[in-house]
Write a structure and sequence with these properties.
Blueprint lengths: L3 E6 L4 H12 L2 E7 L7 H10 L4 E4 L5 H10 L3 E6 L6 H6 L1 H21 L4 E7 L26 H27 L7 E7 L1 E3 L18 H9 L6 E4 L11 E2 L1 E3 H18 L3 E6 L5 E2 H12 L5 E4 L8 E2 L4 H7 L7 H14 L10 H5 L1
Parallel strand pairs: 1-2, 1-4, 2-3, 4-5, 5-6, 6-11, 7-10, 8-13, 9-14
Antiparallel strand pairs: 9-12
The structure holds nicotinamide-adenine-dinucleotide and UDP-4-deoxy-4-formamido-beta-L-arabinopyranose (WQD).
């Protein structure tokens, strides 16, 4: 029995693909749109391999409104969207900010307009802990609650905050207009999910993160060191005010993150809260050195690293206070950092070419 139909933008990307899998496993019908800018269509096969169900896939750009309209026309049962499609490289966003606003902000405008035309009224949005900027400027706000003042420090973060405002204003307007005119719109809802640092892969070893260019994040870089694609990890700063001098982040297993989307979607569909922000993090911070140790343990040998200067724009501590999601969504991160490291290592070993190769044979034969 299908419990609902969801459009997943950016659904062949890292977080989108795991969320599509979680939705299928929870008996949602899933329609993916993705232009494959940073992903591969092979991912659709892997989702099917694990779940036994195949999402519908369209190669489609979210800034192409007629194409979005066509997808909604062909799937009139869709009542909700989970919106991942975006550009996400912090450094690059400083070099080509207009492109980041075009895809992330204008792309969301196209999506909201197309949703409105098709009476699709629930949107779950991929926001980011980056909207908080340097939360350590408010010492009583660590771990960070949702009411911490926002203050992104780079163009990527600005686009995320802008889209949060855009969705908030759009949902409010739809609800107000509906009240005034008696026409439909009152049912609009938005979830602003502020993720901390996603980590790990599927325990089967057939699904994981497969960025198309040079990775930027700590764990994919460590994985490249482990397979010899990179000589060593550069540790960006060992002079932070933390127990070992390196910066603190809240690493959350991708399976837990995907589950958070499912529960947020269910919450919107059941409780119609209007717009609500939720942090998705574990509440536990880990330093860069602790991450190197945990991943080295999963690999079974020490991985080389070297201390380098701090990376521009980095902050000391981004750790979530996830109490709101725990209480309201009934969501809690279950998987450990050790599992995230083991799963990432299994995925890396099994798929040295990522999705540009066949899935590991033993999995196919099962
Ligand atoms: P990802 O790059 O793996 O996924 C994004 C997907 O969007 C890709 O498959 C890409 O091909 C697609 N896409 C990009 N531009 C598009 C366009 N114009 N039309 C259609 N599809 C397009 O990234 P991810 O890590 O899975 O991130 C998903 C979302 O979560 C993004 O919005 C990102 O900003 C946000 N986020 C990511 C992190 C993180 O650390 N990975 C943290 C917080 C928030
Ligand atoms: C983690 C820690 C680095 C690489 C970014 C975005 C954020 C969100 C998640 C999208 C930091 C250190 C890293 C390396 C290192 N994405 N590090 N050597 O910066 O917390 O968050 O991804 O929304 O917006 O900013 O993640 O994985 O890049 O870094 O020492 O080669 O690892 O300094 O302390 P970050 P990260």
């Amino acid at each position: 029995m299908v419990v609902g139909s969801v459009l997943v933008t950016g659904g062949t990307g890292y977080i989108g693909s795991f969320t599509a899998l979680a939705l299928l496993e929870a008996d949602y019908k899933v329609v993916i749109v993705d232009n494959l800018y940073n992903s591969s269509e092979e991912c659709v096969n892997r989702i099917e391999l694990i779940s036994g169900k195949r999402p519908v896939y369209y190669r489609c750009d979210i800034t192409d409104e007629p194409a979005l309209d066509k997808v909604f026309d062909e799937h009139q049962d869709i009542d909700s969207v989970i919106h991942f499609a975006a550009l996400k490289a912090v450094g690059e966003s400083g070099e080509i900010p207009v492109e980041y606003y075009r895809v992330n902000v204008y792309g969301t405008i196209c999506l909201l307009r197309s949703m409105s035309r098709h009476n699709v009224t629930n949107i779950v949005f991929s926001s980011s802990a980056t909207v908080y900027g340097d939360a350590t400027r408010f010492p009583d706000m660590i771990p960070i609650p949702e009411h911490c003042p926002l203050g992104p420090t780079n163009p990527y973060g600005n686009t995320k905050m802008t889209v949060e405002l855009l969705i908030t204003d759009h949902v409010a307007a739809q609800r107000n207009n509906a009240k005034k005119t008696g026409k439909s719109g009152e049912e609009w809802n938005g979830a602003l999910l502020r993720y901390f640092n996603p980590a790990g892969s599927h325990p089967s070893g057939v699904m994981g993160e497969d960025p198309q260019g040079v990775p930027y994040n700590l764990l994919p870089l460590l994985a490249q060191v482990a397979v010899g694609k990179r000589e060593k990890l550069l540790v960006f700063g060992d002079d932070y005010n933390s127990k070992d001098g390196t910066a603190i982040r809240d690493y959350i297993h991708i399976l837990d993150l995907a589950q958070g989307h499912l529960l947020a979607l269910n919450y919107l569909r059941e409780h119609h809260p209007g717009v609500r922000a939720w942090n998705l993090g574990t509440g536990k911070g880990s330093t860069v050195f602790e991450m190197i140790k945990a991943f080295s343990h999963a690999v079974g040998r020490d991985l080389p690293y070297e201390i380098a200067p701090r990376r521009a724009g980095d902050v000391l501590n981004l750790t979530a206070n996830p109490a709101r999601a725990n209480e309201e969504l009934g969501w809690k991160a279950k998987h450990t950092l050790e599992e995230a490291c083991e799963d990432l290592w299994r995925w890396t070993k099994n798929n040295p070419q990522g999705y540009r190769q066949q899935p590991p044979q033993e999995f196919v034969e099962k």
